[in-house]
């Protein structure tokens, strides 16, 4: 057997076993704490609400495990697809496009029942879902169109570079292309992508806007691009995010959030998002991912000429699209141990933004109040297992955030 295939199988198994063990630990931990609301929340969240959040956590975790297990045979069938993929007599780019389209469609189809179950059964059961079949179908069509408009030209160009400069610097050219696309999409995301799915409305004039203006002045933030979004169209989950760069940056508050939070709490959430902007978190994330893709493409350029690379997955002849596919599908498993590092960095950014908000407002009180409401409204897990949250959480747990805020 091919050593690369064995190595991949080991990493793949380790990744999945770890995922299941951590989920199991997390669910057991949650069950051990289900009898009593954690002390800090005792006067804020009822036992009934708390136990509902536990059931929600459990239902979602179970679905994730089942969908992950169902994906395993499909992924392996595809990974070994070299055994049955034959050239259809088209050019390498066209064959590559067909290959990727078929693979993506298969992946999508296998995930479809789980995504439907998640929205129309679990989210529905807990009163979050607002998606109608009509919204669901139009979302699907828009998403498909968007990925084709971006994906087809980019993938064609990548395959062209790989074929044209096989023996020279194709990886550098591809990286420059991908970097440009990523920069473009990240910058324009809130202006071109978000409005395809949601309506963004500039925050209306009023007492809140006045307060934001004063806050913006105080922290030297150019007051522009603060919007509310009709998140309630799809779900009652509430959230806020910061996206885009330069003059396309947007701070977006879900209308569900605006409805649930008090004025001072909203101001705190906004200050938190302004904090992400002032500390340049989007830019830092982008730089890190560009550095990662440069390294990845360079490594691929070293492997691409080795016969064991294709043989591992049964491809008879080397081809750019097969190399790209194997690379995209295997790299996640080879790198899964880095996931906690990214989570750690993301949580560091969240702490920074929280601290920024508390300092800008001169008090941590409204941020804490907002976090408690968000936790309650979204049925967030109050007692995740520390190892689980360490590995997967992009945000610190609500208790960690509150503890840190109380120290500011
Ligand atoms: Zn944040």
Give a description of the structure.
With 408 residues, this protein is mainly alpha-helical. It has two domains: 3-187 and 283-341, no CATH class; 197-282 and 343-407, Metalloproteases ("zincins"), catalytic domain (Zincin-like). The chain contains 15 helices and four strands. It has helices spanning 3-32, 47-79, 92-125, 133-164, 170-197, 207-218, 255-260, 263-278, 281-303, 307-311, 320-334, 339-361, 365-377, 386-392, 398-407, and strands spanning 200-202, 226-229, 240-243, 250-254. β3 and β4 (250-254) form a beta hairpin. α3 packs parallel to α11, α5 (170-197) packs across α9 and α13 (365-377) packs antiparallel against α15. It is globular. The chain starts with a helix and ends with a helix. The relative contact order is 0.12. The mean pLDDT is 92. The structure holds zinc ion. Zinc ion (ZN) binds at residues 272, 276, 350, 353. Zinc ion is lined by residues 272, 276, 350, 353.
Strands, helices and their partners?
Layout: H1 3-32, H2 47-79, H3 92-125, H4 133-164, H5 170-197, E1 200-202, H6 207-218, E2 226-229, E3 240-243, E4 250-254, H7 255-260, H8 263-278, H9 281-303, H10 307-311, H11 320-334, H12 339-361, H13 365-377, H14 386-392, H15 398-407
Parallel strand pairs: 2-4
Antiparallel strand pairs: 1-2, 3-4
Helix pairs in contact: 1-2, 2-3, 3-4, 3-11, 4-5, 5-9, 6-8, 8-12, 8-13, 13-15
Summarize the structure.
The protein is mainly alpha-helical and about 400 residues long. It contains 15 helices and 4 strands. It has 2 domains: about 5-185 and about 285-340, no CATH class; about 195-280 and about 345-405, Metalloproteases ("zincins"), catalytic domain (Zincin-like, 2-Layer Sandwich).
């Amino acid at each position: 057997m091919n050593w690369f295939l064995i190595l991949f199988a080991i990493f793949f198994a380790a990744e999945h076993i770890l995922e299941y063990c951590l989920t199991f630990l997390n669910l057991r931990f949650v069950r051990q704490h289900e009898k009593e609301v954690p002390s800090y929340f005792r006067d804020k969240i009822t036992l009934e609400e708390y136990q509902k959040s536990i059931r929600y956590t459990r239902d979602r975790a179970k679905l994730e495990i089942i969908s992950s297990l169902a994906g395993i045979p499909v992924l392996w069938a595809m990974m070994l697809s070299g055994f049955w993929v034959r050239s259809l007599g088209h050019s390498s780019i066209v064959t590559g496009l067909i290959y990727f389209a078929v693979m993506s469609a298969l992946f999508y189809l296998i995930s479809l029942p789980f995504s439907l179950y998640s929205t129309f059964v679990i989210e529905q059961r807990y009163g979050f879902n607002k998606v109608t079949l009509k919204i669901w179908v139009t979302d699907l069509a828009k998403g498909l169109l968007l990925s084709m408009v971006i994906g087809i030209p980019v993938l064609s160009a990548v395959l062209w570079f790989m074929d044209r400069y096989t023996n020279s610097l194709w990886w550098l050219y591809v990286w420059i292309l991908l970097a440009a696309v990523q920069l473009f999409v990240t910058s324009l995301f809130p202006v071109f992508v978000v409005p395809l799915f949601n309506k963004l409305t500039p925050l209306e004039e009023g007492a809140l806007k006045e307060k934001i203006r004063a806050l913006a002045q105080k922290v030297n933030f150019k007051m522009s691009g603060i919007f509310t979004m009709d998140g309630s169209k799809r779900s009652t989950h509430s959230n806020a995010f910061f996206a885009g760069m330069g003059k396309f940056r947007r701070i977006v508050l879900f209308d569900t959030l605006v409805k649930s939070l008090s004025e001072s709490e909203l101001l705190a959430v906004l200050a938190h998002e302004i904090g992400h902007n002032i500390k340049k978190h989007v830019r830092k994330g982008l730089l890190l991912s560009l550095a990662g893709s440069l390294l990845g493409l360079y490594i691929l350029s070293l492997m691409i000429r080795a016969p064991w690379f294709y043989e591992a997955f049964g491809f008879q002849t080397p081809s750019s699209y097969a190399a790209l596919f194997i690379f995209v599908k295997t790299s996640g498993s080879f790198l899964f141990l880095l996931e906690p590092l990214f989570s750690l960095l993301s949580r560091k950014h969240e702490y920074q933004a929280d601290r920024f908000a508390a300092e800008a407002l001169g008090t941590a009180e409204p941020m804490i109040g907002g976090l408690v409401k968000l936790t309650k409204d979204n049925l967030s897990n109050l007692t995740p297992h520390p190892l689980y949250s360490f590995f997967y959480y992009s945000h610190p747990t609500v208790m960690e955030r509150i503890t840190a805020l109380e120290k500011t």
